[in-house]
């Protein structure tokens, strides 16, 4: 009989359920080295008091630098007092980091924006400029899967407008990539050019992963 082992990773209102015995590798489209380098350069890890708990993507808003991630990654306690920090392992293995100086939340979509110093993370993502990628579009996720920085997994967008089991009012798109605790908040990128299409927020079975598409995110930065 096949045994099931479930590791439940819970932060605030979202759950991440990972079944390692059942994860099947996905034979996804190859991604060029240039695209992978571009994705890794704008991907970061998020920590509380030195412990990695999630992932994010660096982007520019005017002259300011922000990190896009999941709200449940930054929710616990008062972020000003709890050592919320962003860090990144560079290609030469150097680790750089900085604390967050402002947080803006999209409560409805479980999304958070974290403002950081622009000189620390010079490489920023490009947003997908269409409304919705095509079904079966090859994608890449980069995150801190099980605390391992810059872990890249590949797959496809396999569904649109799925109901999130943790909150029926939240509508997500679906991926068939592998993910685990620590992946939350990491970017979902098109494999062909590295454009950001959304934020990974939850998973409920092997290779059944939900993400918030950019079209759903609407926040007031003031």
Question: Can you put this structure into words, describing what you see?
Answer:
By secondary structure, this protein is mainly beta. It has 2 domains: 26-34 and 126-215, Thrombin, subunit H; 42-116, Trypsin-like serine proteases (Thrombin, subunit H, Beta Barrel), CATH 2.40.10. It contains 2 helices and 15 strands. It has helices at 33-41, 71-74, and strands at residues 7-11, 14-18, 43-48, 51-61, 64-70, 84-89, 95-99, 102-106, 111-116, 138-145, 148-164, 167-175, 187-190, 196-205, 208-213. A 7-stranded antiparallel beta sheet has the order 7-6-3-4-5-9-8. It has a 6-stranded antiparallel beta barrel with strand order 10-11-12-15-14-13. Strand 10 and strand 11 form a beta hairpin. The radius of gyration is 16 Å and the shape is globular. 42% of the residues are buried.
């Amino acid at each position: 009989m096949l045994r099931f082992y479930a590791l439940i990773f819970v932060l605030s209102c979202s759950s991440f359920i990972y079944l390692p015995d059942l994860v099947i590798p996905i034979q996804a489209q190859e991604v060029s080295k240039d695209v992978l380098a571009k994705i890794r350069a704008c991907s970061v890890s998020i920590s509380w008091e030195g412990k990695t708990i999630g992932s994010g993507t660096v982007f520019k808003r005017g002259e300011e630098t922000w990190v896009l991630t999941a709200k449940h990654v930054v929710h616990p306690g008062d972020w000003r007092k709890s050592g919320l920090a962003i860090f990144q392992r560079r290609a030469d293995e150097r680790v750089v980091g900085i604390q967050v100086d402002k947080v803006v939340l999209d409560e409805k979509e479980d999304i958070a924006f974290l403002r950081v110093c622009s000189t620390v993370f010079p490489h920023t993502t490009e947003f997908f400029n269409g409304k919705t990628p095509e079904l079966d579009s090859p994608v890449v996720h980069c995150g801190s899967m099980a605390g391992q920085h810059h872990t890249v997994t590949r797959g496809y967008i396999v569904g649109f407008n799925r109901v999130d089991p943790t909150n029926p009012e939240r509508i997500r798109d679906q991926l068939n990539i592998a993910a685990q605790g620590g992946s939350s908040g990491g970017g979902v990128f098109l494999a062909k050019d590295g454009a950001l299409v959304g934020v990974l927020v939850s998973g409920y079975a092997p290779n059944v992963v939900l993400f918030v598409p950019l079209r759903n995110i609407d926040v007031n930065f003031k």
